[in-house]
Automatic annotation (TrEMBL):
Family designation: Belongs to the class-II pyridoxal-phosphate-dependent aminotransferase family.
PROSITE patterns: AA_TRANSFER_CLASS_2
Gene Ontology MF annotations: pyridoxal phosphate binding; transferase activity
Name of protein: 8-amino-7-oxononanoate synthase
Organism: Halobacteriovorax marinus (strain ATCC BAA-682 / DSM 15412 / SJ) (Bacteriovorax marinus)
Matches recorded under PANTHER family: CLASS II AMINOTRANSFERASE/8-AMINO-7-OXONONANOATE SYNTHASE (PTHR13693), LD36009P (PTHR13693:SF3)
Length: 401
């Protein structure tokens, strides 16, 4: 059947089909089984280095058991929004647990991280307010800024002079001026200069909103996030986190003062008009917090793995963007080469994902690798061996031009 609909960006499918016909299409690979750090794809075991399962908790026995028990007690879905019929006592217990864990007065759980940003920012940034926005913010923040009625002004990535210029230019023109930035940048693994952001926010009376999707569970003491890492928890007005990474589940959280969270709870449309997190997801997150609090080996294992692999890449001569977190991007350069390398890695038993233009500037394609507390040193040694072979085979430059 021919389609009446033709999308305005028709080139995108042409490109995808060309890659598929050359067996180089690196997206939507259907994973057949998963044990966390090892997955099965194409009937072959591969070491997973493309996941955000930083703490490796997706298969932790206590977490799995809690998830199953929640299904048995509450069923598989809530079939309604928190606002109406979909609010369970475990949603509220989880919010209290997360507020205590993060060190904020109150927390609110959304059904995904994306919905958290869309709903929270469009609630916070009304027509008389504005956002001051890091130029490398995540797509969900970009979409949130399109949805919000207030204006958005960008500052140069992690550049505090540029941020100050934007603050000085806008602080007297708007009611609330909201600085919005990723805590850990999702492509480069770089950390936001949050201590400096807070200084400027204090100076100009701005509100601070941190998307800590990749920092929560990872950064700071017991993974309490980037704000804890810098010791500025009380100064962050809104901290956003996802459960789709360290917390082995799906959902998102916004934390802050009781009053501000209550305001978002009664105004964020993606919260009020979308079904609530399913019981199994809620129980999973609660169990992850318990495991983090009781197991003192997780974070040392994670950081040991990160240091091992980062040093390994440097020794082989890859450029890894001076990442400071478990996200370690490996510079490749050309888009086609990045897809060829991805295919090569897969054939050699390593599952990784490329990041191509326009997600990164043209000619700066990379392979975004990320590591888990549950990877073994043997697995990481194999990853490095395979990358070493790839470097030779594809002549990958060790510097970023
Ligand atoms: N913010 C950032 C920085 C992210 O990387 C992501 C997901 N990749 C999100 C928000 C959205 O989170 P979720 O997957 O839970 O919708």
């Amino acid at each position: 059947m021919t389609s009446k609909f033709v999308g305005s960006n028709s080139k995108i499918l042409e490109k995808a089909n060309l890659l598929k016909s050359n067996n180089l299409y690196p997206f939507f690979r259907a994973i057949e089984a998963s044990e966390g750090s090892v997955i099965t794809f194409d009937n072959k075991d591969q070491i997973m280095i493309g996941s955000n399962n930083y703490l490796g908790l997706t298969h932790h026995p206590h977490v799995v058991e809690a998830s199953i028990k929640a299904i048995e007690k509450y069923g598989t879905g809530c079939t309604g929004s928190r606002f109406l019929n979909g609010n369970l006592s475990i949603h509220e217990e989880l919010e209290e647990k997360l507020a205590n864990y993060l060190g904020h007065e109150a927390a609110l759980c959304f059904s995904t991280g994306m919905q958290t940003n869309l709903g929270a920012l469009s609630a916070i940034c009304g027509p008389r307010d504005c956002m001051i926005f890091d130029s490398e913010n995540h797509a969900s923040l970009i979409d949130a800024s399109r949805l919000a009625l207030g204006a958005t002004f960008k500052y140069k990535h992690n550049d505090m002079e540029s941020l100050e210029e934007q603050l000085a230019a806008n602080v007297n023109r708007f009611k609330n001026v909201v600085i919005v930035a990723d805590g850990v940048f999702s492509m480069t693994g770089k950390i936001l200069k949050l201590d400096k952001v807070i200084e400027l926010a204090d100076k100009y009376g701005a509100i601070v909103y941190v998307d800590d999707a990749h920092g929560i569970g990872v950064m700071g003491e017991k993974g309490r996030g980037t704000m804890n890492h810098f010791g500025v928890t009380e100064k962050v007005d809104f901290n956003m986190g996802t459960f789709s990474k360290s917390f082995a589940s799906i959902g998102g959280v916004l934390s802050g003062t009781k009053e501000s969270i209550d305001y978002v709870k009664h105004t964020a449309r993606s919260f009020m008009f979308s079904a609530s997190m399913p019981p199994s997801a809620v129980a999973t997150v609660g169990a992850c917090v318990d495991v983090i609090m009781s197991d003192d080996t997780i974070h040392p294992r994670l950081w040991k793995n990160v240091e091992f692999i980062r040093n390994g890449f440097k020794e082989i001569g890859f450029y890894t963007y001076e990442s400071e977190t478990p996200i370690i991007p490996v510079f490749i350069g050309d888009d086609l080469k990045a897809m060829q390398v991805t295919k090569f890695l897969g054939d050699m038993g390593v599952f990784a994902t490329p990041v191509l233009a326009p997600a990164v500037p043209q000619g700066e394609a990379l392979i975004r690798t990320s590591y888990m507390a549950s990877h073994s040193i043997e697995e990481l040694t194999k990853v490095l061996e395979v990358f070493k072979m790839a470097k030779k085979e594809f002549d990958i430059p060790g510097i970023h031009h």
